[in-house]
Design brief:
Elements lengths: L13 H38 L13 H21 L5 H30 L4 H7 L6 H8 L27 H36 L4 E3 L8 E3 L6 H8 L8 E2 L6 E3 L7 H9 L5 E3 L11 E2 H4 L1 E2 L4 E2 L6 H10 L23 E3 L4 E5 L5 E5 L5 E5 L3 E7 L4 E6 L4 E2 L5 E3 L4 E4 L7 E9 L4 E5 L5 E6 L1 E4 L5 E2 L7 E2 L6 E6 L4 E7 L6 E19 L6 E4 L5 E4 L10 E7 L10 E4 L6 E3 L6 E3 L3 E7 L1 E8 L10 E2 L4 E3 L2 E2 L4 E8 L2 E8 L2 E5 L4 H9 L4 E2 L4 E2 L3 E2 L4 E8 L2 E8 L1 E5 L20 E9 L6 E2 L8 E9 L9 E8 L7 E12 L13 E5 L6 E2 L4 E7 L5 E9 L5 E6 L3 E5 L12 E2 L4 E3 L2 E2 L4 E6 L3 E11 L5 E2 L6 E2 L4 E10 L8 H8 L15 E7 L3 E5 L15 E5 ...
Parallel strand pairs: 1-6
Antiparallel strand pairs: 2-5, 3-4, 7-8, 9-17, 10-13, 10-16, 11-12, 12-15, 13-14, 15-17, 18-65, 19-20, 19-64, 20-62, 21-56, 22-24, 23-55, 24-54, 25-26, 25-53, 26-27, 26-51, 27-28, 28-29, 29-49, 30-33, 30-48, 31-32, 32-47, 33-46, 34-39, 35-38, 36-37, 38-39, 40-45, 41-44, 42-43, 44-45, 47-49, 50-51, ...
Helix pairs in contact: 2-3, 3-5, 6-10, 7-8, 10-15, 12-14, 13-14, 14-15
């Protein structure tokens, strides 16, 4: 059939150019289309160069209509604020009104830009650039010459203050800061999207890389259905073009073929099919293909890149993965939202085309409801028609579906483009959200008979803390700024001298200290000029070094000083031994062993070095004798001389031990001599003793027998002996005690052991085996004080080199933290009753802190509340308004609640809301207040007569928040769908169709029978199906009501529908009416359709178009496996994951041989898990969990047949795709032929 080019005499914008290229590509092929594109490019460049288009600031022209649009928007905002202040809408509804107003203003201005440029300057360079498709778009032009619009804060919530300026006019500082939020978010989003999109593409390619066109026709009889009337013609043509018909398609009412089975559907046939208004069309799809490990040409259809049937060997899996992954960067993360409430979708709005009258039908059924903007409307309960009559008396009808919102009343007159109705949201999931109602004023809560309003009448509110003193005022008193409303006593707990601490900069009083010296010691303390440490010398001229003193006493005694003597200093590292623990006593902490009796210590020197290095680096040999300062390893030297022992493991030297002493080596020993030698091990010999007739012991020694390889040696290790005399404890002999007040503290000296017997003493210069110490002790029963105890060393003025020791108490009263935090912002005054350096007794009142009023006023009303939140309310004249009238014609009565804008006389409207206190003939007194609107879902925390301060929570608004696409849209949503993630709080699903009989106690649902087969004859025989909710585990609300019809898989409770649960629900249901294999296929088909629809919804919402067949290829890979539940007579194992086609073939063999078949359940795999469960372990191991997969493959003895692309690339073989594909395999048989 010859192709003809249609003549078009029109302005070619981006859309028209796209259509021309597409037509050329389809009708004339790739080469001719390329020539056309080159010619168009040359044409454009030629005239663009001739035109000499330039750009300047003057080209940025701001439409004059902007001022009027902003003025109208501000009026609408004022209206919303007035409604809020009058208690007609709540804070959520006001916020949504503001957002909607500015969004509409911004969108209207954007629409006006196009018309403005067309009419005033059609050759404007900005306009040409944006609308030719060269660079930029309408949204960016709007920001240049319109207004930037609404921005989101760092949390993603919309800021209800718009940027009304554009870049031509310049931004204010506030505009710039708000823009910075969005700019930062955009930069971060771009970086994250790029990485996430790349990783998603990699996973998609991995899961689909082995999907190749391997055969012409799989001979399947299955198909998927398309419903033409659900699409626009252009969308339908695009969706069905390039597909293959699964069945013969006839003209309605005739036997004339439009399309034959297995015939390709091109653009012309697609248009004809749509025009015939067919109800359903069956087409072949990758989802229905029965080819093993591949897809056939017929089920795939056209290669969309060439407009012809896909070639054999085409790697359609990789094409599909790239087609889905590549647009991923275009998907925004869409955290930019309005707190869960969204602006109305213009496509759902029905507006009047002309001015006229709207009337309802006679049988209309509605119920009142409230919109998210706070407007009372009617909600349709069933489908109906609106009748419209224009000014020419021409009548028309508007069809509305059930649950549509009607914004007009019966017989209302409406203007052109006025909103009449709004169609219901479809496929929208909602969840409950909460928003606190914060009081903007302080005052008293008042409840009236009007249940949807709560009032707060103005007043000054003050918290009354516990143990505070309240001044007694009367309603007629005048209060100045210096009068204390509430007083707090500042009381000292202990005796002492008062000291004031002031702020270093502003000189304000910060704290009060009460110092008291409990005890004073005059003792010989000196300062060492070299170390700057204090030295204490007792009456025996023994030196002690004073430790760093603690600021407070932690226990009944503290270590005051340690002896400076080196009598018991270990000569080196080594081991300490003593006979038993009878001569010392452990303390409570068991860290010190205080010596009680005389005794003896034995010390055997030894040096131990931890190495943990390669044995090849060792410079000395095991069993050798070395001198002091010998290099053991590079940079490591010995501190003593002696015998070397090494500890080695896996060629790593862990430890080197050097033992000083006399070493004698023995060679060629008989067994008897060896035994005699070994018997000497660990024995002690005294000086002068002889061993083996030739070894004279010169010093107290411990014998150690060594064996290195087969060589024996005898090591005489020296023993150092320390004699410990019986200690003489004298508590007061060490100091000259001059006590100023009372004898409460004492000193005592003691000796203590630092090591347990057998413990290793590490090499340390100042490590003593025994410490002589002085402790400072006191009895807690004699020293009762709540203040902190401090040690302080004072200089002796008569002898500058000497120091004295003082024990003091230090009570600190921090005035900053004296009052609760809620008083931090209050106006306070401190009055003191004591002076600095004054001595006070315990429980002395030092002063008071007074809470002052913010301004001077006259009290007209006093009210107090008691615990738990004691508060004081003082009402003054500023909280009242008085209105006068000369006619004595007031329309209000006493105690009536009235709102701002209402009339109190026929001629007078008031500008404040509140309660009428008094009505006299010519005056009316009003107590000012604020009303708050309460919806049915609002939870009120305050009761009548409660006192609230600014910022206190009055209650919580509970409202419905949309949780679908717009909040977690874009890349994260696509990833969530393809990875088949299980939601945390999934909804309860119906297992079978039926009718809800009743819902009991919000936790039990009873559904009657299978509603598909109910009639009067078997109604009584049908069984109830009972669903019970465990309220300990879930708090989801039941979303079905009595008499509702329930279909299979319908959610019965709020929550997200889990695709895993839905798959099993479908499978269990279909198993009751089909074979297991057919039930698995049907349940997979249901889930496949759902997943494809979800993915397309996400991409479609962002303006990205992806052919269905690409998504079908990926979805096929994750919905093709089942889990074995019972093996039957097969060799399969329970829990094993296997292809559905494979297990059906195995079961068919079992059936023919009369053996028991395997049972299974379908599985929904994510793309990652599906990649790891592929038959090729080489492909899976190159993706993730390499070690685990290769180990499992080795244990199971797996064989990789190298059927896919990836494993052949890794091995380096010819890739079985494209030119490497063998189109004449020896065996060419489909699963359908086998069965």
């Amino acid at each position: 059939m010859s192709k003809t080019v249609k003549f078009k005499n029109t302005l070619f914008n981006k859309k028209e150019l796209k259509n021309v290229i597409y037509t050329a590509f389809i009708d004339y092929g790739t080469a001719r289309a390329s020539y056309l594109a080159d010619d168009l490019k040359e044409l454009g460049f030629h005239y663009a160069t001739k035109a000499g288009i330039s750009i300047s600031v003057e080209d940025l022209k701001v439409p004059p209509i902007k001022k009027s649009l902003l003025s109208e928007a501000y009026k609408e905002i004022d209206t919303s604020d007035t409604q809020y202040s009058r208690g007609e809408i709540n804070t959520i509804e006001r916020f949504q009104n503001v957002i909607n107003t500015w969004n509409n203003a911004s969108e209207t201005l954007k629409d006006e830009l196009v018309g403005y440029f067309k009419t005033t300057d059609p050759l404007n360079s900005i306009y040409l650039m944006a609308f030719s498709g060269a660079r930029g778009n309408l949204s960016q032009v709007r920001q240049l010459v319109g207004m930037r619009g609404l921005m989101s804060d760092p949390q993603g919530q919309i800021i209800d203050i718009p940027i009304i300026h554009n870049f031509r006019e310049g931004l204010t500082i506030t505009d710039y800061i708000m823009s910075a939020y969005g700019a930062r978010k955009g930069v971060v989003d771009t970086a994250l999207r790029t990485a996430d999109s790349g990783y998603l593409t990699r996973r998609l390619i991995d899961v689909a890389q082995d999907v190749i066109i391997r055969e012409e026709d799989c001979l399947t009889k299955r198909s998927i259905n398309l419903y033409p009337q659900k699409f626009k013609k252009s969308d339908f043509v695009e969706k069905i073009s390039g597909r293959v018909a699964a069945k013969d398609i006839f003209q309605p009412g005739t036997n004339k073929h439009i399309v034959k089975r297995n015939q390709e559907i091109d653009i012309e046939i697609a248009g004809q099919l749509y025009d015939e208004k067919l109800s359903v069309i069956g087409i072949r799809s990758p989802l229905t293909c029965e080819s093993t490990r591949s897809i056939c040409q017929k089920c795939y259809g056209w290669n969309l890149a060439g407009g012809k049937v896909v070639d054999l060997g085409e790697a359609v899996g990789i094409i599909a993965a790239q087609s889905i992954g590549e647009p991923g960067t275009q998907l925004t993360m869409r955290t930019f939202h309005t707190g869960g409430i969204f602006t109305a979708d213009p496509s759902r709005q029905i507006r009047s085309q002309k001015s006229g009258v709207v009337s309802f039908g006679k049988n209309i059924q509605t119920r009142p409801t409230r919109t998210m903007y706070g407007k009372d409307i009617l909600l349709l309960e069933k489908e109906t028609l609106l009748h419209f009559t224009d000014y020419k008396n021409q009548k028309s009808e508007i069809k509305l579906s059930a649950d549509s919102s009607i914004f007009v009343k019966d017989n209302d007159f409406v203007k052109e483009k006025e909103l009449l109705a709004e169609l219901p949201l479809t496929n929208q999931q909602t969840t409950q959200a909460k928003k606190d109602i914060l009081s903007p004023v302080s005052g008293e809560v008042v409840l009236t008979n009007q249940k949807d309003i709560v009032w707060v009448l103005n007043g000054n509110i003050y918290d009354i803390p516990k143990d505070s003193l309240l001044n007694e005022f009367k309603p007629t008193n005048n209060i100045t700024e210096q009068d204390g409303l509430i007083n707090f006593k500042i009381k000292a707990k202990s005796e002492g001298i008062v000291k004031f601490e002031k702020h270093k900069i502003n000189n304000t009083l910060e704290s009060i200290k009460i110092l008291n010296c409990l005890q004073f010691f005059k003792m010989p303390l000196y300062k060492d000029k070299t170390t700057s440490k204090l030295i204490l010398i007792n009456n025996k001229q023994e030196k002690y070094i004073v430790d760093e003193l603690p600021k407070v006493f932690p226990s009944k005694s503290i270590l005051f000083a340690q002896g400076a003597s080196n009598i018991y200093k270990a000569p080196s590292g080594g081991e300490i031994y003593y006979k038993n623990s009878s001569f010392y006593k452990g303390t409570v902490t068991k860290k010190e062993r205080i010596i009680q009796k005389s005794g003896k210590l034995l010390f055997i020197p030894k040096e131990v070095k931890a190495i943990n290095k390669n044995a090849a680096l060792l410079e000395v040999l095991n069993g050798s004798v070395i001198e002091e300062k010998t290099e053991l390893l590079k940079g490591t030297f010995s501190n003593i001389d002696g015998f070397v022992e090494t500890k080695e493991s896996n060629n790593i030297i862990q430890q080197i031990t050097i033992k000083p002493g006399k070493f004698i080596e023995y060679l060629y020993l008989s067994e008897e001599e060896k035994k005699q030698l070994i018997d000497l091990n660990k024995k002690i010999f005294f000086p002068g003793e002889i061993i083996f007739e030739d070894v004279i012991v010169e010093y107290l020694s411990c014998v150690e027998i060594t064996k290195v390889f087969n060589r024996y040696g005898l090591l005489l290790r020296p023993i150092y002996e320390f004699n410990i005399p019986k200690p003489k404890v004298n508590k007061n002999s060490i100091v000259s005690n001059k006590n100023t007040f009372s004898s409460k503290l004492t000193f005592s000296n003691f000796d203590s052991l630092n090591f347990n017997s057998g413990e290793l003493v590490k090499q340390h210069k100042n490590r003593n085996l025994i410490n002589s110490s002085i402790s400072l002790n006191w009895n807690k029963t004699k020293l009762e004080t709540k203040a902190g105890l401090n040690l302080k060393i004072l200089k002796n003025h008569k002898q500058p080199d000497l120091f004295n020791l003082a024990i003091i108490t230090n009570e600190v009263i921090n005035l900053i933290n004296f009052l609760p935090k809620k008083f931090a912002n209050e106006k306070l005054k401190i009055s003191l009753q004591v002076k600095g350096s004054q001595f006070i007794e315990p429980q002395t009142i030092l002063g008071k802190i007074s809470l002052l009023p913010e301004q001077q006023f006259s009290i007209t009303k006093i009210k107090k509340t008691t615990d738990p939140s004691a508060r004081l309310m003082l009402v003054n004249k500023n909280n009242y308004e008085t209105y006068y009238s000369e006619k004595n014609n007031f329309l209000v009565t006493k105690d009536e609640m009235i709102k701002a804008g209402n009339k109190i006389t026929p001629d007078l409207r008031i500008n404040y809301s509140g309660q009428i206190l008094k009505v006299s003939p010519f005056a009316c007194k009003l107590h000012r207040g604020i009303p708050f609107f309460l919806t049915k879902e609002t939870v009120l925390y305050k009761t009548k007569n409660d006192l609230v301060k600014v910022g206190d929570t009055l209650g919580t608004i509970i409202f419905e928040q949309v949780v679908t696409g717009d909040i977690v849209q874009g890349l994260p949503k696509v990833e969530e769908i393809l990875e088949a993630r299980k939601p945390q709080d999934s909804a309860l699903l119906a297992n079978s169709p039926g009718i809800v009989i009743d819902v009991k106690d919000d936790n039990t649902i009873n559904i009657l029978g299978n509603a598909n087969y109910l009639d009067e004859s078997n109604l009584k025989k049908s069984k109830y199906q009972k669903y019970e909710l465990n309220r300990k585990k879930t708090k989801q609300n039941i979303i079905v009501a009595k008499n509702d019809y329930i279909y299979v898989g319908q959610p019965l409770t709020a929550g997200i529908v889990s695709p895993h649960n839905l798959l099993i629900t479908y499978f269990e249901y279909y198993k009751t009416i089909n074979l297991e294999s057919e039930a698995a296929y049907l349940s997979f088909r249901k889930i496949q359709k759902l997943l494809i629809h979800k993915v397309q919804d996400v991409y479609g919402s962002q303006g990205v178009t992806i052919a269905d067949k690409h998504i079908e290829v990926i979805i096929r890979q994750i919905t093709s496996k089942v889990e074995v539940t019972a093996a039957g007579s097969t060799l399969l194992l329970p829990g094993e994951v296997i292809e559905l086609r494979q297990i059906n073939y195995i079961n068919s063999v079992m059936q023919k041989t009369g053996k028991k078949q395997a049972n299974y359940k379908p599985m929904l795999l994510g793309i990652t898990k599906a990649s790891l469960l592929t038959e090729s372990f080489i492909s899976a191991a190159s993706f993730q969990e390499t070690t685990k997969i290769l180990t499992a493959a080795a244990i199971e003895g797996k064989i990789d047949w190298l059927r896919g692309l990836k494993e052949n690339v890794i091995i380096g073989r010819l890739i079985p795709a494209g030119t490497g594909f063998d189109d004449k395999p020896q065996i060419k048989m489909s699963f359908a032929e086998i069965t």
